[in-house]
């Protein structure tokens, strides 16, 4: 191998770049998986929506449509599983796959139970609420895979794409849950207090997700999002939200509004899918560009280093035949000569600076994931320790943030820190802000 | 392969653990490299100390001792290079090696120039100050490899060991630089203002390093450190520091004190090496234990999963031959049966929790590295933008921290943030606190 001839310094410089390329190729495979997951999630959301309609009414005409949606999701699941088989068979290398694989195992575990759920739905042996909850859990587990992929990505551009995509998927999933909740409410003719709280919670969390998405998304995706927000179906959907908020047991609505709600929210979610596809394409493109760039750099890097190495060889040769220079004032024969040394150092410093910039950018993009993790964990803590439901836990955090003039994630951080330091003595009184 | 028979869920659970093991094995190899580097650094520190003595005096009797110290260092360098060859030839996998390899390339580059420096020293063609500075740069580049190893380690226990070792090495290196500075000062009979400032700086940074070391070190290492602090040679060395501080051009000292200074500080540094060896051993032990634990867990994990899989198989078989249960109230045949599902879920949740705890611990240990990086980068920024030297930059940060009632790293963070946002317009006035 020609590289063997290079001095160790130069060989390690090349190996550093090669390692970067390998890591990117690996990441690119994960991103391909993420786009498959994104498509499966969309199919499952559609299936969930129709399952809900099917279970909420006695109408049998919905059954064929539901079955075809199930089939579409099953076929995407099949493709995802085939892609997973590929990964499984590959050599693991020493890359960090532990968390990603644990998430995948969890998602697969829930997917394993999907056929049974589908049968119960078709046979009407489950409630719309239970079916929705089970499918939401499954979709949540798939989103967790995307989150982990974003959290373990090492390229700042790709991480930004993944953070944008994850947040968009999360927002869209919350929109799906909102649609389901609305269907249930309008079916009764009004919303009870708890449903309204949950509706608020879902809307706030959607806003949070889409605002994070906007921070990391491309110009094109952001414009598509703004167009969606200004679209007629979105504005009408918002108006129906207001109507939902004004209902109570004594102010019932025409249950027909439920169908309009479903239709408008479905249009809204379908528009979202267009943006999701855009984000998927951008992600894959970003991987391609990144690999292309490193391959080119690696190629030119190798050429530069080989030239450096040749230069060293020639200078040494020149010295051997030189009779003019005395031992004392000639450049030292050991190691690289000074010109060469300077070029090598320049290359190294350039590489180190580039890595530093990458690290900073990466930290910035991961910050958004870190904040989400904190809020999620604080919510879980409140649910466990205080017996709150999810909306209540979120409302508590938001209120505490307002009272203390802090960011949501700062409150979450403080809550978690106190709890870790003193896990048993978490006085309920203190928790009331 | 037997694993092929397991359902995909269980296979991914196993793959997650296997990935953890591979990653740990890889880390263990890096740690072995770190201990070699630690030993080479010690030898180079000794060589630097004697080079200094040799260059500061005209005494020729020091030359044989110096040559033998150079040889000792060269032989450790040779072993390190051989170990690096091994790594270089290994498959890279997809692990993050880019930063580590860039650091290694830089260290190798400076090592390449060492033979020439040695010749200049023996021939007295360089000043003590220049030789010290060049060797300090080389040692700094080796410390940077250890830092990077610590920063990319994925196991919290091992990261803690590496953080303790890195900070101890850093403190010891500063002690070595202090020794060199003292030798120069006592040789003149007094210290000029700039030397005294630098002496303060070296002592403060030592304290910072050793205090971080203490936070992450084992009980045994901490006790050894406390014993060192209470040792006679350390106390005497501290007294000589006070004497150094009281000197000026009109209050010269007996230059013989320089030899005492050298001897006491050498004893102090030799004691440090004992602790360093302890830390090296603990690090390697920690790697061994970690791998052993995961191997055992992987083994029992595999057994549990295979049992789960068998169970599934049996339950499916049982169902096939059962004539009692009707299709409707029997558990669904698809996917895992509910008992099995619960066991799988338990295992998954256990694994996810363990990973969460590891992540938290890892973040905590890395925080110390992050803080150091911030302070270093802020210092470099001040040096670049304000023309300060290192001591001045550090003094500026410390003063700013005191004035604003902040931690050093918080000031560093603010300085870097402002500078990134507005790289060109960094008003000198604002920098004066």
Please characterize this protein's 3D structure.
Chain A is an all-alpha fold. The first copy, chain A, has two domains: 19-293, no CATH class; 362-433, Arc Repressor Mutant, subunit A (Orthogonal Bundle), CATH 1.10.10. In chain A, 82% of the residues lie in helices and 0% in strands. Chain A contains 14 helices and no strands. The first copy, chain A, has helices spanning 8-56, 63-89, 98-112, 114-122, 128-152, 156-188, 193-216, 219-229, 232-245, 257-321, 338-386, 390-404, 408-421, 428-431. In chain A, helix 1 runs antiparallel to helix 5 (128-152), helix 7 (193-216) packs across helix 12 (390-404) and helix 8 (219-229) packs antiparallel against helix 10 (257-321). The longest helix of chain A is centred in the last third of the chain and has 65 residues, at 257-321. The model of chain A is unreliable at 318-336 and 421-433 (pLDDT under 50). At the A-B interface, helix 1, helix 2, helix 3, helix 4 and helix 11 of A face helix 1, helix 2, helix 3, helix 4 and helix 11 of B. Chains A, B: Keywords: Coiled coil. Chains A, B: Residues 345-385 form a coiled coil.
Write the layout of secondary structure elements.
The structure is a homodimer of 433-residue chains.
Chain A: H1 8-56, H2 63-89, H3 98-112, H4 114-122, H5 128-152, H6 156-188, H7 193-216, H8 219-229, H9 232-245, H10 257-321, H11 338-386, H12 390-404, H13 408-421, H14 428-431
GO molecular function, one term (chains A, B): RNA binding
Pfam family, one (chains A, B): ANTAR
Domain ANTAR (chains A, B): 355-416
